[in-house]
Write a structure and sequence with these properties.
Blueprint (H helix, E strand, L loop, with lengths): L9 H6 L7 E4 L3 E5 L7 E7 L13 H20 L7 E3 L15 E5 L9
Antiparallel strand pairs: 1-2, 2-3, 3-5, 4-5
The structure holds guanosine-5'-monophosphate and zinc ion.
């Protein structure tokens, strides 16, 4: 479900510029910020400006699906710009079992080291 800004959501506040973050990219739909607790030399979060609780909420409309795809495209663009020519990882955690801790959809872009599989 697409929604308006959720007043108690940290990523809504970051997207609105109310809480500072290191912004690496911004367009009318999305913002990319450096993760506050990086798990790789490059750890970026790509966040929709609209409040969507998680990927599990995406699918009711083409608009939502296009937005989710846009987030992946932005992650790929940033990876290219950051020179991650040997590869990188994109992760979306969904819900408690998926390890999601912030209930606003975000795409993790991790790079700059060799990743392990499977993730923990
Ligand atoms: P999740 O576990 O929900 O997939 O990922 C949430 C991510 O958001 C974590 O990697 C965490 O370090 C990051 N994070 C949480 N709060 C903030 C914040 O206030 N600023 C930034 N830049 N990252 C945050
Ligand atoms: Zn939000």
């Amino acid at each position: 479900m697409l929604g308006n800004m959720s007043s108690d959501c940290i990523f809504c506040k970051i997207a609105a510029g109310e809480i500072p973050a290191k912004k690496l990219y911004e367009d009318d739909q999305a913002v990319a910020i450096a993760d506050i607790d990086p798990r790789a030399p490059l750890h970026v979060l790509v966040i929709p400006k609209q409040h969507i609780a998680s990927l599990a909420e995406v699918g009711a409309s083409d608009k939502e699906k296009l937005l989710a795809g846009h987030l992946l495209g932005v992650a790929n663009q940033l990876a290219r710009e950051q020179g991650l020519s040997k590869g990188y990882r994109v992760v979306i955690n969904i819900g408690p079992d998926g390890g999601q801790t912030v209930d606003h959809l975000h795409v993790h872009l991790l790079g700059g080291r060799t990743m392990h599989w499977p993730p923990g």
